[in-house]
Structure formats: C-alpha cells, structure tokens
C-alpha cells in the first residue's frame, strides 16, 4: 500500500513538473531542450546509482535512506555526495551529453538553448539541489503516513528516496528554466522600450 502510494505521489509530481516545464518552455514540435536534458540527467543518475550500489551495497544504501529522514537538508546533501558520488557525477554528465544530442535533434537551435555550458551547469545545479530536497520531502512524507519510521521497511525507504530524487530533479529543472526565462525577459525589456520609443 505504502509503496504504491509513494510511487503514485512520485509519478504525479514528476508529471506535474513536466507539464510545468512544457508551459514555461513551450516547443512547437518535438521535445524541448530542457526535457532532453532532464531525460539524459535521469539516465546518468541511474547509471551512477548502479555504480554506487555495486560499491556500497543495497543494505548500506537502505541505511542511508533511514538516516536521510533524521538529518537536515545540508547534512543530507553532504551525505549523498559522500556516499553516492557516481550518481551525482552521472546526472551532471548526462546533462552535458544533452548538448551534442540537442545539436543532432535541433540543428537550427540557438546557442542559448543548446550549447551554453554555463546554463547547462546551472540547470544541473538546480537538479542536484532538487534531488536531495525531493528525497527528503518524500521520505519524510512516508514517515508521517506510517506514523513513525519504525513502520518503514527497506523497500519503502529506497522507493521514497529514488522517487523523491526524480521528482526533485524535475522541479529543479522547472525552477532553473523559469529563472533563466525570467532573466531573458528582463534583459530584453530595455531593447523593446528603445524600439517603441
């Protein structure tokens, strides 16, 4: 029951984030650059997580999930970076690999959307922030729903952490793209004002 509810919450949160991303950065045809980067980030994260679990083991990963609900955001971020380095490196690398992929999918796209590495790294940073925040939020939600961490089993903790990470990455991308587009709109305002005058 808890696993399915956690899965449904994660899936709905990810779907809502993808919808918000499509509204902020609409695409006439095909897939928008932020969606491509997010997909590559997901893939890189999963490959990195597989590498980390071969070193760490599932039992220690489950212990990390249990500890995750009892510490602050900063401590959780440090813990994730320390014990799951390949997962974070894979997510950032996946995002960077989106640049040549976008060039192949959209040959005419502008540098601001496809090849600007600074923007790509900014999106990756927001996704990293979102990964930890999402893992904490969904994990703590599971604990509240079961009225105490003692009722959570290993599978529940892992599903909460992973589902929360995917959801957090999605909303991290939403925030990043929203801020970037707000910056572009603000930057273009003086030019429009000069043209009108």
Task: List its traits.
197 residues, globular
Overview of the molecule:
The protein has one domain (about 1-10, about 35-190). The chain is about 85% helix and about 0% strand. The protein contains eight helices and no strands. It has helices at about 1-25, 35-55, 60-70, 75-85, 85-105, 110-115, 115-145, 155-195. The model has no long low-confidence stretch (mean pLDDT about 75).
Give the topology.
Layout: H1 2-24, H2 33-56, H3 58-68, H4 73-83, H5 85-105, H6 111-114, H7 117-145, H8 154-196
Helix pairs in contact: 1-8, 2-5, 3-8, 4-7, 5-7, 7-8
Overview in brief:
By secondary structure, the protein is mainly alpha-helical. The protein has helices at 2-24, 33-56, 58-68, 73-83, 85-105, 111-114, 117-145, 154-196.
How many domains? The number is 1
Give the biggest beta sheet: none
> End-to-end distance, in Å?
63 Å
Q: Into which percent range does the helicity of residues fall?
A: over 70%
DSSP, total strands: 0
CA gyration radius, whole angstroms: 18 Å
| Low-confidence segments | none
Work out the strand percent. under 5%
Order of helices and strands: HHHHHHHH
- What is the approximate shape? globular
- Specify the number of helices: 8
Structural class per helix/strand content? mainly alpha
The residue-averaged pLDDT reads: 77
